[in-house]
């Protein structure tokens, strides 16, 4: 069943002295609650990581990603600029396919992920993250950027990433939980960042096919190379190096030092670019474009 999310709206009250005092007190209480929640978050994150560490290395079970494959084939295209975009407008008007997306996500929610081997689990989580992201965009479409979908809890939160959107093996999960508390914590794999898609121009491509355990290494490497060798991933201009903000936000995943990070990125680069990266000792700038990866934002301006 397709479940639509609802945006909670806050309303301001007139600023009479009594109400202003109450507002200050309430703001302090909320800030205190936010601080407490922030302090408790790491423990819960650790619990989530432990909850999903179980796997069956001998398992030959696979997850049926046929519905997701069909949707990707029909609505995701690779532009002349080598960026994949989603035809959200057409998909949003096709009730049967919107329902298919919901059915696919429900199928994943009903999967005993702990019974899968590690590669199948990684594919499961990456596909779930990407499918739920598309669903969130559809629920709020039209929208200029995923950051405008402010449904996450917390006073200072933006975007949809903190909202609990799915349930797997009894655990309510947000997109942040899937990426940061499960994938990043349970896999020592920087290529996580090339696999999950945040519906933005600056993000690595939404894959044109589902991730699959048997093809995972090939798919991850292809995703990494496509991003690193694209200007939004890495670019040099008169010796100035500009790389994606992803390598700043999650720098430690790519290496303990900047030199180590550039060396890691270079492993996916074409030879000339790789040499520039590994020999670069100057300043590094970071950029990221949050524009929606919509076909209406295509290279031809359509």
Quaternary state of the chains: single chain
**Strand arrangement across the biggest beta sheet:** 5-6-7
Structural class: mainly alpha
Report the portion of residues in β strands: 5-15%
Q: Work out the helix count.
A: 12
Largest pleated sheet: 3 strands, mixed
Name the descriptors.
about 300 residues, mainly alpha, 2 domains, 3-stranded mixed beta sheet
In short:
The protein is mostly helical and 302 residues long.
Q: How does this structure look, described?
A:
This protein folds into 2 domains: 49-219, no CATH class; 234-297, no CATH class. It is 47% helix and 9% strand. The protein is built from 12 helices and 7 strands. The protein has helices at residues 17-51, 66-75, 88-92, 95-109, 118-140, 175-186, 192-195, 216-228, 246-249, 251-254, 258-266, 271-279, and strands at 76-78, 84-86, 164-168, 171-174, 234-237, 240-244, 284-287. Helix 4 (95-109) packs antiparallel against helix 5 and helix 5 packs antiparallel against helix 6. The chain is globular, with a radius of gyration of 21 Å. It starts with 16 loop residues before the first helix and ends in a 15-residue tail after the last strand. Residues 1-43 have low confidence and may be disordered.
Please render the helix and strand layout as text.
Blueprint: H1 17-51, H2 66-75, E1 76-78, E2 84-86, H3 88-92, H4 95-109, H5 118-140, E3 164-168, E4 171-174, H6 175-186, H7 192-195, H8 216-228, E5 234-237, E6 240-244, H9 246-249, H10 251-254, H11 258-266, H12 271-279, E7 284-287
Helix pairs in contact: 1-6, 4-5, 5-6, 11-12
